Amino acid sequence: MLLAIDCGNTNTVFSIWDGTKFIATWRTSTEHQRTADQYYVWLSTLMEFQKIEAEITDVIVSSTVPRVVFNLRVLSDRYFNTRPWVVGRPDCALPVDVRVDAGTAVGPDRLVNTVAGYDLYGGDLIVVDFGTATTFDVVDADGAYVGGVISPGVNLSLEALHQAAAALPHVDISRPQRVVGTNTVACMQSGVFWGYVGLVREICTRIKAERERPMKIVSTGGLAPLFQQSADLFDEYEDDLTMHGLTVIHAYNTGRTT
Ligand SMILES: Nc1ncnc2c1ncn2[C@@H]1O[C@H](COP(=O)(O)OP(=O)(O)OP(=O)(O)O)[C@@H](O)[C@H]1O
Ligand SMILES: CC(C)(CO)[C@@H](O)C(=O)NCCC(=O)O
Ligand SMILES: [K+]
Fold first, then answer.
1. 184 Cα: distance to centroid of ligand 1 (angstroms)
2. With contact defined as beta carbons under 8 Å apart, do 245 and 113 qualify?
3. What residues bind ATP, as annotated (predicted)?
């Protein structure tokens, strides 16, 4: 079975893929100090607890944090006796082209989202991922990643207000009832929530205009459903787009589904 690891700047997600479905998914915070042994203790405890008797034969990693890759490699070598596929490394081929300025190291999560989006919906796509940053990945008609947009993430925006202004509290995002807030928290939520609705709509409209063609918009990431409720921002929502992309890239490189 395949262990797929999606390491973001905030959270790292581990999923086990049996060739047709994910049989388990676990999330932990991303910490580059965590060693291979620590990962294994954590993983094996959860597997035991959930009575999952999966024999991991393959590992694939997408990491936006370069420093964690070393320990994930050791985890794979030492405990699963397999060399991991690492997205973005030359020996891990992608089923799509990457057409960007020379020397640009595109975030592996964005490449994986591109592959996943193209696999599920075909080309001429905008993939919007609400993670630490909110990214827009533009997928050409032939599936190529051709660039995109990086915006500050929703939680990051709220946190920045709290960090920079002495009187602004820590606030969690939610959809405010009204635009005009009558207390500090409501004012902050309104600014970020409705500001974000506008940001997403404006960026997608401009991408479509710049490319002069209709494009399907696919959203993913923890906060995507919150924004989908409020307006017709997206055509599709996928809760585990990145994980799906990892299985596609693994199959492309090995010729096996698991
Ligand atoms: N209704 C909600 N309100 C606040 N936060 C939410 C809500 N729903 C999901 N989340 C948050 O969304 C996050 C999941 O998003 P996702 O995994 O896409 O990105 P991330 O882990 O924050 O970022 P990265 O992938 O860059 O590490 C979780 O941290 C969770 O706290
Ligand atoms: C933008 C993030 C942080 C989103 O996770 C990640 O994709 C990244 O670190 N990207 C590198 C720069 C780029 O994608 O062009
Ligand atoms: K993510």
1. 23
2. yes
3. 6-13, 132
Q: Is 143 left (phi over 0), alpha (psi -120 to 50) or beta?
A: left
Any known ligand binding at 8?
yes
User: Residue 108 — φ and ψ, nearest 5°?
Assistant: -60, -35
Nearest protein Cα to ligand 2, atom 3? 133
Q: Which of 149, 150, 156 to mutate to test the pocket of ligand 2 (most atoms within 8 A of CB)?
A: 150
Query: Phi-psi category of 78—alpha, beta or left, where left has phi over 0 and alpha has psi -120 to 50?
Result: alpha
Q: The tokens 């042994």 sit on which residue?
A: 37
Same domain as 131, residue 63: no
User: Which tens digits make up the pLDDT trace of 1-40?
Assistant: 999 999 999 999 999 999 999 999 999 999 999 999 999 9
Interface predicted TM-score (ipTM) over 0.95 = no
pLDDT tens, position by position, 138-189:
999 999 999 999 999 999 999 999 999 999 999 999 999 899 999 999 999 9
Query: On the CB side of 2, how many CA atoms lie within 13 Å of its CA?
Result: 27
Task: Find the distance separating the first CA and the last CA of the chain, reported in whole Å.
Answer: 5
| Domain enclosing residue 168, as ranges | 108-244
Ligand 1 pocket (Cβ < 6 Å) reads 8-11, 130-132, 172-173, 221-223, 226
CATH of the domain at 145: 3.30.420.40
pLDDT in tens, 68-117: 999 999 999 999 999 999 999 999 999 999 999 999 999 999 999 999 99
